[in-house]
From TrEMBL:
It comes from the Bacteria. InterPro entries: Hexapep, LbH_gamma_CA-like, Transf_Hexapept/Carb_Anhydrase, Trimer_LpxA-like_sf. This is Gamma carbonic anhydrase family protein. Coiled coil: none annotated. Pfam families: Hexapep. PANTHER family: DYNACTIN SUBUNIT P25, GAMMA CARBONIC ANHYDRASE-LIKE 1, MITOCHONDRIAL-RELATED.
Length: 173
């Protein structure tokens, strides 16, 4: 599993987290309990720090980076879908950052919010709690509140899936 220290910056991975062997973690990266990090995800904590809470899935191909001025902070019980890119932003708890979306420096996604597939949340963008942002650039959908339990099923699924991978994944080549 490619997990690298950069000088004295070293990843901290909770013993109950699952990091797939093809994910890459570098530097100041903290991963919480029951969080899972899937193949080809890259979490590069070089200029600043990256923190991911508990039970969050960081799915395949996701890139998490940070800047000297903007750490990346991802809450608990979140879903970061395939190929997402979060750079120097803050994401609250129970958020869906859907496949292929981009969340840029200084952006704040409040708890329970959704960033739709393929959306781009601009620099310093803001998605209020339990609202949904769609499109490029992302716009908050008017008159719509995200259901409270929108991502809870996916969160549970990934926590269980990580246990299966931990026990059953075997490399065959
Ligand atoms: C954002 C999302 C959750 C919205 O789902 P939904 O609430 O069921 O929304 P609907 O499909 O009913 O669409 C509602 C409106 O939003 C639009 N819309 C939905 N998703 C959109 C997207 N990603 N980008 C732009 N517009 C979108 C629809 O066209 C529709 O517009 P209209 O009202 O003008 O007809 C869903 O489209 C999505 O992006 N899911 C991603 C799932 C994912 O990435 N999972 C990670 C892997 S587990």
């Amino acid at each position: 599993m490619p997990i690298y220290a950069l000088g004295d910056r070293e990843p901290t991975i909770h013993p109950d987290a699952y990091v797939h062997p093809d994910a890459t973690l570098i530097g100041a990266v903290t991963i919480g309990a029951h969080t899972s990090v899937w193949p080809r995800a890259v979490l590069r904590g070089d200029y600043g720090s990256i923190t991911v809470g508990e039970r969050t899935s960081v799915q395949d191909g996701t890139v998490l980076h940070c800047t000297q001025f903007h750490p990346t902070v991802i809450g608990s019980d979140c879903v970061l879908g395939h190929n997402t890119h979060v750079e120097g932003a803050t994401v609250g708890d129970r958020c869906l950052i859907a496949s292929g979306s981009v969340v840029l420096n200084g952006a704040v996604i409040e708890s329970g919010a959704v960033v739709g597939a393929g959306a781009v949340v601009s620099f310093n963008g803001h998605v209020p709690a339990r609202r949904m942002a769609l499109g490029v650039p992302a716009r908050v959908r008017e008159g719509h509140e995200v259901p409270e339990d929108m991502v809870s099923g996916i969160v549970r699924l990934y926590v269980e899936n990580a246990k299966v991978y931990r026990q059953q994944l075997r490399r065959l080549d």
